[in-house]
Amino acid sequence: MAALRTLRARALVVPRLARGHAVAVEARTAPPADGAVRNDWSRAEVQRIFDGPLMETIFRAASVHRLHHDPSRIQLCTLMNIKTGGCTEDCKYCSQSSSYKTQTKASRLVDIEPVLEAARQAKANGSTRFCMGAAWRDLAGRKSGFEKILTMVREVRGMDMEVCTTLGMLSPDQARRLKEAGLSAYNHNLDTSREFYPKVITTRSYDERLDTIAAVRDAGISVCSGGILGLGEKDEDRVGLIWQVGNMGEHPESFPVNTLVPIEGTPLENNDPVQVHTVLRTIATARIVLPKTIIRLAAGRHTFSETEQAMAFMAGANAIFTGETMLTTPCTGWDVDKAMLDRWGLRGMRSFEDAESVEVLDKAATTEAEASVAP
């Protein structure tokens, strides 16, 4: 026992510092809290999130989601192809490219009234954002077509709907005119990481895509930019895409997560389907890195079961495309989607309501705080 008391006494001895000697203490900076909006992510940080245990990552993403969004709200968007096929780009996933022999045939720009009728139908079915896509590399030499699209934008915005277009590359002046017409958002996906991108597209550079995004943002239009899973990329490329948008000066307003729908005649027609756990990892990682961004479960959603889609909503997805078709691929119909959302206790987001979720949470927090101090 005496020996034991001696050992304990020695263990409690704290060496005294010599007088007059300053001791340097290394300052430790706490890591940023989850949910903070950052533009200084390292690629290694994003990779660690992506590689984490899936259920833990989803829980973490769901927690971040609730800091900035109402988890019961899902944005319903409808997409219409207003100019099909004949595109001079060589995107290997796209049936609208003139480089490949597919069943998609080139057509002229749709007239204004059919577009407005489609928008009315979308609104009547609960969609709050109407998106219009044209298979063009850019708008060069398309003056009359551009004027027609500007009219479409003005008319759809007049229906109190959010309006999004994807028309290829834009100049700053074209972006300005779209803004003046009332455009809410512009879609221009980066598709994948900078490193893998040349294996998918050679007719438009990664930097050209970034230039269009910059022109859109400078014009005051919200940026919609995401990617496609299943192009043959690896996990590090999915991480590279999220890292790229996570370090933009301002995060995109929305981040579409598309899964490849292989189309006969395209170079990627035989690609293997993307596993659902890969989609969930991508969504959860994007939610943590882009806490305020709307994450849209986009092309390929029709291939996932209802339960798999619910997991995507849990992981942070809060927007879907709904309606009859996407651009050239299938889409789940309005009635099916509304029934699914109802079963899961979810509801549509109202138009121009991106900030409402934060206001809802702030009001709830205020009410709870007032109740806790009430006598």
TrEMBL record:
Record keywords: 2Fe-2S, 4Fe-4S, Biotin biosynthesis, Iron, Iron-sulfur, Metal-binding, S-adenosyl-L-methionine, Transferase
GO terms under biological process: biotin biosynthetic process
A Gene Ontology molecular function term of the record: 2 iron, 2 sulfur cluster binding
Cofactor notes: Binds 1 [4Fe-4S] cluster. The cluster is coordinated with 3 cysteines and an exchangeable S-adenosyl-L-methionine. Binds 1 [2Fe-2S] cluster. The cluster is coordinated with 3 cysteines and 1 arginine.
Keyword S-adenosyl-L-methionine: yes
Gene Ontology cellular component annotations, sorted alphabetically: mitochondrion
InterPro entries in UniProt: Aldolase_TIM, BATS_dom, Biotin_synth/BioAB, Biotin_synthase, Elp3/MiaA/NifB-like_rSAM, rSAM, rSAM_sf
Its EC number(s): 2.8.1.6
Domain called Radical SAM core: residue spans: 69-301
Pathway(s) where this gene product acts: Cofactor biosynthesis; biotin biosynthesis; biotin from 7,8-diaminononanoate: step 2/2
Binding site for [4Fe-4S] cluster: C87, C91, C94
Annotated residues for binding of [2Fe-2S] cluster: C131, C164, C224, R296
Record NCBIfam families: bioB
Family assignment from sequence similarity: Belongs to the radical SAM superfamily. Biotin synthase family.
Protein name, as recorded: biotin synthase
Species of origin: Cutaneotrichosporon cavernicola
Top-level taxonomy: Eukaryota, Fungi, Dikarya, Basidiomycota, Agaricomycotina
Gene name of this polypeptide: BIO2
